[in-house]
Design brief:
The longest helix has 15 residues, at 177-191. The chain has helices at residues 3-6, 9-14, 35-44, 57-62, 66-75, 90-99, 105-117, 135-139, 177-191; strands at 23-27, 48-52, 79-84, 125-129, 141-146, 149-154, 166-170, 193-194. Helices cover 40% and strands 20% of the residues. It contains 9 helices and 8 strands. The relative contact order is 0.20. A hairpin with a 2-residue loop joins strand 5 (141-146) and strand 6 (149-154). It has an 8-stranded mixed beta sheet with strand order 1-7-6-5-2-3-4-8, with helices on both faces. The protein starts with a helix and ends with a strand.
Amino acid sequence: MTEEMVWPAAVRSAIKTGPDREIVAVYPYRSMCPSAVWTQLVADSESDIFLAGFTNYFVWLEQPNFLGTLRKKAEEGCRVRFLLGDPEGETTRRREAIEDTALSVSTRIRITLENLTKLRGSDGVEARYSAPEDGPNHVSLSVFRFDAQALVTPHLARLVGHDSPLMHLRRRDDGGMFDRFAEHAEELWTRGQPVA
């Protein structure tokens, strides 16, 4: 039997049956994703929190006691990773010229670095800069993974992250949307350089 026979068009339009089953929600702006979604994803994570945004600065501002939450997660055995752009790198300088905002890209990265220094010595917390050759690929796509769920932001042209769209994904199938974005972030991590 074909999928069309089992799932008539009326049912297929109401129930996700294909690759889009991994899409939990979409938001035209990252800033429209409720803070509670981020809070719940962090709270529910048991094995891996991987924040692979170029700056990651906004989570420190939007999540109450994020420092304490991450420290506790790491103590409970959850691996916590940050992949950042190099604040002194060429990609950062180019992006700053494109965005032309008062809160520069390098400043936003430094907000994350300042908070990460407070987590030094916490087992299970790691941070890397993306490799210089990966900078353009990193700055154009943010992947925030929480075990088998992810929030993904493809950055549009000259827009800052909060003005770009966001997809909430939940892993369902091998090689699906979740895996595609998770593998991209892992590839960048593999070539990344440790934050001193």
